[in-house]
## 1
Amino acid sequence: MLFSSSIFLFLFLPLVLLIYYLPLRKFRQGQNVFLLVASLGFYAWGEPWFVLVMMGSIVANYGFGLWVDRNKRTGRSCRLPIIAALAANFGILFVFKYLMFTMGILNGLGMHLVVPVIELPIGISFFTFQALSYVLDVHRDRGEVQRSPLKVGLYISFFPQLIAGPIVKYETVAQQIDHRQENWADFSAGCARFVVGLGKKVLLSNQLAVVADHAFGSSAITPGFAWLGALCYTFQIYYDFSGYSDMAIGLGKMFGFHFLENFNYPYISTSITEFWRRWHISLSTWFRDYVYFPLGGSRVNSKAKHLRNLFVVWLFTGIWHGANWTFICWGLFYFVLLVLEKFCGLGRGWPVWLKWLFTFLMVNFAWVLFRADSLTQAGQYLLSMFGLGQPGRPDQALLYLRENWAVLIAAAVFSTPVALKVRKWADARRPVLLDLGYALVLAVIFVVSASFIIKGTYNPFIYFNF
């Protein structure tokens, strides 16, 4: 079920809110059980069989959490339960996401294995990482163990962030499961945040996708159209993913949960390091806390170990995104750029505008690699950007630019904090008028988005694939 679907907007969400706030208003345990059932139903709507995989993950990690807690209380080592939790979670992820890819590699090396066709459960990387966070945070004393499997289930399966994040660490919401405080201010702010995210997805990302899909689906394109397609995909994936995160954070607030931010205007970054502090913050934080720091981070006694730690994190980041060489090379491309920044002084002393331009270009090239179906296609597309590919119609770029220039300008403007600054400026002078104007803008965004949804086509979120 998509957030940007009529059945979610006009049936599922209103029904869940009504039941949560009317008959269950003062019954926290009942609210938690209801949200768990609703979340499982939300996932089962599109994945009727794979909900069993998620339920198996919930039961297994509930048991691992109890095992870790028991060993801690009795003074025994937690090494065995942690290893078991890692093996079980990564084992499930490997079977569904990487087994076919691995067997294909082995066949390429001369083996003759029959590669099974395994369908990928939507969002498996997200809920697997959250499940692991529960066990690891219990081990690190960052949250109390849950004696109720239903509460573990709610944490792992809560529908707002279940399919495409943000990845919510257990320590962030451990207290909120039983002690959250719902109020009108949070509810209204959550509604506003949800509408903003809906507009990002429907009015910007989906429109940019038309240009990007045509460009990446063409075998012969002009350099101008190649650059336009890459630029459109750069903005498409940002508004697609940050739009989902906005909707998830907004939905969480409607039910009293507070999730951490997942994006902070990444395209204004002036270095690759800064970009990854602003892009998919929850994933970067997860790898930092559970992989990079345990390996020693940057506080190791040699440059070689620091390089190793960076390499492991970015190799895993690439692999996390998918079973394809394009994702692995995408992660390692960022590893190389970060090494050049941290150890070779790349960008040091440059003017700010040049640092921004270089960063944006590198991110743009990385998205080409990310979007391509294969390394061959990525190489061909990059060559086309520099006039070295098969030429296409000379008016390709102009035709699409004429139809989408307004969307591109809006995408560029709203990828910066200019709207936030204007709102702060106006709030200091005419707060009442600003509130009325903001409410009117949100109403227009919702109505226009809803009309697009009702008459539009199916367009899933990009990160559903991960």
## 2
Amino acid sequence: MYLPEIDLPLLRAMLVLKKHRNLRKASEELGISQAAMNRGLAKLRRELNDPLFVSTGHGMEPTPRTLAIIEPISKIIELALDEISPVAPFDPLTSEREFSVAASDIGELMLIPELMQKCEGFPNIQFRSHRLAINSLPDELRSGAVDVAVGAFPALESGIHCRRLFTERYVCLARRGHPALSGDFTMERFFEHSHVVVSTGMLGHAHSLVENALVKMLPRGSIKAVSPSFLLSAILVGESDCLLVAPSTLARLMKPRLNLEVLTCPFDAMPFDIFMYWHERVHNEPAHRWFRSLIIQNFFQADA
């Protein structure tokens, strides 16, 4: 059996080039010159007897041969990093790591400003926000496109770890001066007013239970707007006489910004737990462990 003479740095170069589709960006991530990148690519092409990447108007596109072998190459690199290479400790003071977080718009508003504030002393650490998409989330966690996801999902595939951060409860939001604020806020009064409903669609989020309940119980014509955005829904409520049933985190974040008032939810909306999710692939990575610890320290509520 012929065994190609390919070393691990060349295999890693393939992964990086596939990610960026750009020789300059790939060479910058690898810390080598473009000339060295081209020489390595030429060697790969000879050993594997395939062009591997073809220059197009959209960048360096992988050939079918590359797409067929990229997953086993990724596993080889992971094994080398996890089991063979020594693990260097993570130093946030000198790190230039970018951490990516997938969350709803509430999660983004809750997480990113707080993380930025906590990391003011670490000048080169960056954060990137990704919007949650349940269909692609497992792949994004597995590939490293997303470091952690924060939300409430009943089930994700095996190989994904989770840690409860806090328990979310529902409240009702209204603009300051809303007629519903005078007197007892009963179900009858709840039904008297117009509503904005947040729709999580096919996201698979726990909020879909309350969304479905609202659509069923509210009188025909009382739902004036449906939006996938919690933040937009809060803005609409702040500028109208509509009500919004939403998680208490949204109320805490947006009440002072939009002059909203918080009412007790008049029906039994079940609380739900918010989790942090990450992939087994990075479970023991020092930088990732540090990042997860940072989130847990700032958002975990033991008594929630």
## 3
Amino acid sequence: MAVFSIGIAGGDVLNGWIKNHVKRVRPENHLMETAGFSFPSGHAMMGLIFFIMVAYLIMKEMKGNSLKWAVGIGFVCLILLIGVSRIVMKVHFPTDIFAGFALGAAYSLTLFKLYKFLGPRVL
């Protein structure tokens, strides 16, 4: 749970730091009020980090490969729906979503490597 908590909190800090340095303005949207900068998408990045970590924890305990595939595909679909919804609602550009996914994936992989390296020693 420590890695999960650190992962979510660290991802949010990283996303905010990048947004404040890039300062990309959001697309014009007259349907809803939006605040903050656009790049990268925090929903895409944090959604990917959260659901990859949840999927990892669930799949780690499963025995059957077919069930692991089903869970994995389900979580991938959920993550993609988050990205698509942000574009459809016109609160992000597609590049914001792709960047959020890429940064979230890189951050998640780093967390998993760190967990495997430090896990037995620290946890």
## 4
Amino acid sequence: MIKRLQITNLRNLSQVNLSTSCCNIIIGNNGSGKTSLLESIFLLSRGKSFRTHQPSRYIRHQNNFATVFAVFDDEIRLAIQKQTDATTQLRFNGDTVKTQSQLTRYMPTLLIDPSSMDVLEQGSASRRQLLDWLAFHVKPNFYAQWLSYQRLLKQRNSLLKQTRILTDLQKQQIAAWDAGLAAHAELIHYYRQQVFDEWQPYFLKSIEKLLPHYTKKISVSYQPGFDITQSLDKILEERLLQDLQQGYTRVGSHRADIHVHWQSDIDNKNKVKDQAANVLSRGEKKLLITALRLSQLPLLQKDKSKSNIDVSHETLDYESSVPIVLLDDVTAELDEKAIQVLLTTLGGLDCQVFLTSLTEDILPLVKNYWQDYKLFHVKQGVIEKNN
């Protein structure tokens, strides 16, 4: 759990130094900086913002860098500095580390933002990331397979973009890469399937609480991205001509998806499945998105264990921090019943919460679950503690 948070030059937050608690309520008007505080925590955990991909857009005007530093209750210290040219510096306990995954593994952070419809209405990437984020944290061997797969895929796609006719040497390269992709894809699918099977019951329980009238109508399925009854290298070999024409690899683990289905009854015997996003109202979609993300937390609790973190070429064992949950303006997006379900679930888990709101109307509900919460008010980038 974060016990101290320092933010420098992130949007309108020029200098912030906070002592935090298990539950932290940030109150402020739109544009005051409350969402920027959540953005800073997300940046430290994930190495990127949830609002933009360009550091120059969140680095404070006329500054060259933004920095986020956190001290946890076990005295672990994490820091990230982003420069306008996207150069990144990462530190774990004062030591420079090379990869963001080392901070991410220690600091599992989940953003619950019901207003964002990307996970339902856009391509498969955001839904796949939901599953892969969970696999990263609960299946220690998943990330190495995923990373190796991505590297081979990048090489393959680079070659496919360069030419439409392969030399004999290039064909040999493609064949070697395809064999590697197939080996990694098999394990990636294995871990994803395990995580999905463990996650699905928690998702259905969340649906029972948030959308009780649709319990028997909403379901989820996992699509691996390729026909798992065949080896991926054989599939890629058969599709190579079309891949060359398109200039990219069209099937594989990188095309996996999570489908959220809506089941309609035509009559007592016939049932038709549609995508839930095509049927639900905007308000119902917000509840569905909340259910998808909220249902991941019990799995993190269940599988919480020590992680091997490589710091300056030395592998050390650290127990990961409790999950950190970022709730952005949920009082404006969800009704009181949904907020109660959300807070009841969070209150029963070992996690740290940062919640933003326009007003203090949320406080009576918060007091039912956290007695030691901290209240902060944000005005024009200045954050003041109020209790």
